[in-house]
User: Fold these one by one.
Assistant:
Number 1:
Amino acid sequence: MTERTAVAALREFAGSARFAQALTLIAIGLAFSTHAIRSLVGWPGLLAALTALIALCGVSLVARWRAVEWYGILPLTILVFVGWCAASVIWSATPARSAAGVAYLVAFTVLGVYVALMRDTIQIVRAFGDVLRLLLSVSLVLEVLSGLLLDLPIVFLGIKGDLASLGPIQGLFGSRNLLGFVALIALLTFVIEWRTKSVLRGRAIASFILAAGCLVLSGSPTTWIALGAALVATLALYGLRRARPATRRNWQLALISTGVVAVVLGWAFRVQIIEALDARGEFDVRLDVWRELSRYLNTNPLQGWGFVGPWPDRIPYTWIEVATGRPHESALNAYMDAYFQVGVIGALLLVALVGVALVRAWLLASNRRSVVYAWPAMMLVVIAVTSFAESFALLEGGWMLLVVCAVKAARDMSWRDALAVGAR
């Protein structure tokens, strides 16, 4: 084989759909397995794997350059938010840590953009389904091993071995809330797989039971609230997709009004809802963190303390941990986290990013015939609701999922198209 032939073969392999599919699976798996990878090989191993994966994605993009539609590649909301986070390095209280945090955010942004560019929506749903099936299965096996067979915690993974008492369990994800979040998006993904007949019926049923079991055993109150919101959104989409096009706009306006009323009522009866979900302890923890955050927000309300992503062991974050009496990796609220790290401007940019993406995805889901278009809308509903109690939307797999959904929604419907559809 000559050198030219070898180069041509390498280029053909790098530009193949199978290579892009493999990289998509690896990217999703890495993004949602960061806790397990760090536990096994530490930060150096995770960063090395992330760097190698981004390099391979770059090779794949170059090889498939002519096949990619580059117009409208990235929504303006993502560019502005990431740009503002990068600019915060200038005024950050910890500039070196902020630079590292921004680089980490950009890395998962690149992975999200790659997945959205290389695969169509049904392929992305299948990829997420395959990866999450594996991760939840491994999580459950480890919980059975720890809680039933050995009756010992797996300390380095953060598995406490509480399966015998029906949870809460953590699996590969290090916390019950993250496991609940992953189980919920997996549950919705498996439903879309079943509705699109992407997998056999038996596999779809088994996957649904697996995700539902992990969700219940996680014992995460925040996940139950997000599940309720997702179910309401699913019923609303079901009705909209069957409404006559002439009346669809009126139904959309009615849903918006109903949503506003639901939010107001939810806030008014928040105490009763928290007690009904037995989430008083969870809420008190978050309230303590947010109370301490407010003490330092007055110092830098407009621009924040500088983007860092996961909280480092440095001031002012250590001050908050000392005051609350426990370590924290985030503000337990993505919007509050953005407010604290990149100020009111950054928080508004994050709200705009999630909001614009959700509107686009919602209009697509309610107007396109294929049920697969409901997947980005459902994912964004879960992200938007969960972000009130967790910061997953700013971190690793949660951020990558947000980028994937935002990019797919923007490429399938620009803001001009969205306004045109909404005006019909």
Number 2:
Amino acid sequence: MYSGPHATALASARSALPSLWPAFALCLSMAVANGLGRFAYALLLPAMREDLLWNYAQAGWLNTANALGYVLGAASAYALLHRVSARRLFQVGLGLCLFTLAATGASGALPWLSSQRALNGIGAAWVSACGSTLVLLHYRHAPTRRGAATGLFFGGAGIGIVAAGLAVAPLLALRGPSAWPQAWMALGAVGLLASLWPLRLAGQVQEAAATAEADRSGPLPLRHLGACLAAYFCWAGGYIIYLTFIFAWLREHGLSWQSGVAVWSVLGIAILGSGLLWRRALAHWPGAYTLSVCCAISLLGTLAPLLGSTSSLFISAAVFGSSVFIAAAAIAVLVRQNLPAARIGRAMALFNLAFAAGQAIGPVAAGAIADRIGLDGALWLSAALHLAAVLLPWTARAPRHAA
């Protein structure tokens, strides 16, 4: 064990680092917005499809409705952040996510379900864009912590995924497909508990004065960032296909609901821990490079069930989960490396818009393919989109400089 002045200096430096607890608190908002609001639908999809007599295209449409809401939320965030603070929009978005989680199960009518999924998407877009902005602002003077904090924030979806698996799968297994409305209510209750801390903390984050004012500094530098914008679009379409249909693929191949919960839990735990695994890359690599590498690893996770046996689903979930949300964290790092603080909020909203568009197209296109040639075809589409996301950042990488 080290001792003496060097050890004392090292201990002092470590103690001076800001705590990661604020990032953890804010990551709970991603557990609600993404883990419960978006990805838990994969667990309910087989039950709702059976009880409501849907085909795969109809089932995929509900995630597309959610994604279209996300498009609207991302576009409105881009406009609203001229006038509204990021923390206020974050709080409203999280409240909207909570309301729609509980309200989704009130009716089985497709128009009602579509409207609730769309409203949930609007709230999730506000939470993602503004929450990531709050994290970047909170750690703006701590570059050595910024990567870990950003990865932890986006990895919060893993908490929601695990919580959804434990709450929803046993309920549907015991009470049958007709219990899907109660499953949505359960998700709402879990979401309420998870939202208390981030809602409180968001009001305490001090935003830079420049971010509260309208951004009048001209258009964003898309000549440098455009390739990553396109990659983010492709990644969004690819990852949401996997998370929408992987549970249905598992059920179609005869695995039990207990195995499904286990796979789902592995996925959630891997997502939650991904920020720590990638903390060095997020702290030191250029954002474009991190984006490409993490998409390559997600691609391997997508291919695992297609090229192996059903037992490879556990490997797939671990590999996919350990990398998939690092793409969003890499975008946040890219923005922070290339733009001043006053422009972070709107830039994140713009990237969220590209993400939302890709995620809107993915599920309905994959559902149509699944109806024609089976769920393997949907996963192959996911793999192709991941491959595009791997290659695009290398065509025009953004120059790295500190903001």
Number 3:
Amino acid sequence: MSPPPLAIREQLREQRFNTVWKEELHDVFVDVAPYYDRANHIASFGLWNWFLRNFMSIIELRPGQRVLDVCAGTNAVGIALLQREPSLELHAMDRSAAMQEVGRQRAEDRGLKLASSTIGDVHVLPFPDNHFDVVTLQWASRHLRVRDLFTEIHRVLKPGGRFHHCDMLRPGNPTVEKLYYAYLRGSLAITGLLFGSGSAALGAKKYFIEALEMFYSADELSQVLRELGYRDVISKSLLAGMIGLHRAAKPLAD
């Protein structure tokens, strides 16, 4: 299926998926939290850590910076950042207390401590304007109102601060796209069986494919970032556009 035009993409995404986002995804992540990382290692054929290393490679850090990891999940990004630069003031935010509890334990097991963990709606970030040097977001924007969230991230970034994004995207090549969805249908079924997924996660399998069909390609997401006022936007595609990495800066003066 062809995605809707870029100008109305967000409106149609929200119309189609709003009920899932507001009423169903919470239960999905409660279900998958205990095995989320292990399932993704299997589903990605062992590439999960490679994706993270590629994401880390586009993030520039300085000692003592204040960092916000949005949709932090099990804190994979926060842990990697703190291991690289322990002096960071790192804050995590996620809507799922279950995922953050797993993340808190993972960080604690590695002798790391986050500055804060906030549970709430990431479309309304509870932080002041011009507050963070760096904001990161991985594996979540398919389930969010992208323009609203990216606008909030722009608000809380300091002038000159950088936003780093990584997610599964809609490949620009139609043949790759079809193969991608076929693979995802199979991997979701296999991991659901292996880990004994509950009804919430099993019921969301169709949604996960449909969300990608209506999502953005790497080039389209770059365009959205520029339209929202970000500058110096760069992107990097992995696996023929199945995974996209973006870095963008808040201008020194709007």
